[in-house]
Design brief:
Length: about 230
């Protein structure tokens, strides 16, 4: 099972408590720890978490700074634990616009957990589905211009091989917390046949029980992939 989560609702969680948005992100980061542990425990093989979108740069700069600070602190504090829990961490998205100390911590955590064989944790940072598609297209154009003769025809497999989920399966289930029913630029290519589950719970209130119910709902769905199924 490849589970992906759009972790939305931190700001509203804080607002309803009369707190600043950053407090909401701090609480949200605690849920990340719990959900990663739980996903690993129940045998999810891949977990992809949407942490920062290519559009989130539009937020006020203190909020952007706080979000990156949280990512950096999470990695610094957790990398040893992730390794002990056999979690392999990998970042998807752009790397060219990130603050250097954050990027350094990201690369360090990828290297540290490189040999881990348990849960594969993808964290989407400065990730956008459209941006990913354009990066793939540009890589394919580059590849083709470096080859002599006819450019090869692009098929789904060659596209995928340049994408952020190369060597990984597409998400089976995408959960979005926070009540909005949209993808907000998440996994535009890979979500073609993912099950979608939208829950009203704000991310800082999301818990193991809610995740278990979402997995339960998804397990009852017949995935026909355009065919007619078993019936
Ligand atoms: C999700 O929570 C976290 C990020 C997008 C980084 P939000 O900050 O979007 O919370 P709401 O949607 O404003 O409540
Ligand atoms: C999606 O949430 C991005 C992440 C959870 C990282 P947003 O809060 O940015 O999405 P919109 O703006 O409501 O579409
Ligand atoms: Mg939001």
């Amino acid at each position: 099972m490849h589970l992906a989560i759009i972790m939305d609702g931190n700001g509203r969680w804080a607002k309803t408590r009369g707190l600043g948005r950053i407090k909401g992100h701090k609480e949200g980061a605690k849920r990340v720890e719990e959900i990663v542990r739980y996903a690993s425990k129940i045998g999810v093989h891949t977990l992809t978490l949407y942490a920062f979108s290519t559009e989130n740069w539009q937020r006020p700069s203190p909020e952007v700074t706080a979000l990156f600070q949280l990512i950096k602190l999470y990695l610094r504090r957790k990398v040893r634990e992730l390794k002990i829990e056999n979690v392999k961490i990998n970042f998807i998205g752009r790397r060219d616009r990130l603050p250097k100390p954050v990027l350094k911590e990201m690369i360090n955590s990828e290297n540290e957990t490189d040999k881990c064989t348990g849960l594969h944790l993808n964290v989407a940072v400065d990730y956008g589905g459209r941006d990913e598609i354009l990066r793939v297209m540009n890589d394919l154009i580059q590849e083709s211009s470096s080859l002599s003769g006819h450019p090869r025809e692009i098929d789904e497999a060659s596209f995928k091989s340049y994408s952020d989920l190369k060597n990984q399966c597409d998400p089976d289930l995408i959960i979005r917390t926070g009540g909005d029913k949209r993808l907000s630029n998440f996994m535009l290519w890979h979500a073609a046949y993912s099950e979608l589950d939208f829950v009203d719970t704000l991310w800082p209130d999301f818990n193991e029980k809610e995740l278990a119910s979402a997995l339960d709902r998804a397990s009852g769905k017949e995935r026909r992939y355009g065919g007619i199924g078993d019936s």
